[in-house]
Amino acid sequence: MIARLMGLKTISPKDLHGAIEQKSVHVYDLNAPHVYKSGHVPGAVHLNHETFDGSELPYDKKADLVFYCSNPMCRKAPNAAKLAKTKGYENVRVLSAGINGWMGKKLPVVSA
C-alpha cells in the first residue's frame, strides 16, 4: 500500500518465492533485529533502517532488489527502496505483504 503510494513497484509473496528459487533476486529485511531473528525470508539480509545508506547493496545497478518490512503499511522497506532508486538501482521492488503476508501464505521462513 505505502510502496505504491510512493510510486514503487511491488512483488507478491508467491512471485518473490519463485524468484528466490531461481536465485535471481537480492532480498533485504528492514524489520527490527528481534523480528528478523524470529523469522525471515530465506536468504534475506537484515538491514538497519536507521543507518541504511545503500553501501550494503550489490555493485550491479541492474541487480533485482526486493525490500520488505512487517506489513503493507510499514514505511521502512519503501523508504529503503526509494533510497536504492536514488542510488541508481533500476530493478527495485517492495514485498507488498511484508513478512506477515509471506508467513500468512505459509511460505518458508528462516529463524536465526
Describe the structure.
By secondary structure, the chain is an alpha/beta fold. 33% of the residues lie in helices and 17% in strands. The protein contains five helices and five strands, in the order αβαβαββαβα. It has a five-stranded parallel sheet. The longest helix has 11 residues, at 76-86. The chain starts with a helix and ends in an 8-residue tail after the last helix. 37% of the residues are buried. The model has no long low-confidence stretch (mean pLDDT 96).
Helicity, as a percent range: 25-40%
Annotation, overall tally of beta strands:
5
The dominant shape is globular
Q: Label the CATH architecture.
A: 3-Layer(aba) Sandwich
Question: According to CATH, what is the class?
Answer: Alpha Beta
What is the CATH homologous superfamily assignment? Answer: Rhodanese-like domain
In the residues, how many domains can be counted?
1
End-to-end separation in angstroms reads 28 Å
Largest beta sheet: strand ordering: 1-5-4-2-3
Observed structural traits:
alpha/beta; 112 residues; Oxidized Rhodanese, domain 1; 5-stranded parallel β-sheet
Helices and strands in order:
Layout: H1 2-5, E1 9-11, H2 13-21, E2 26-29, H3 33-38, E3 45-46, E4 64-68, H4 76-86, E5 91-95, H5 98-104
Parallel strand pairs: 1-5, 2-3, 2-4, 4-5
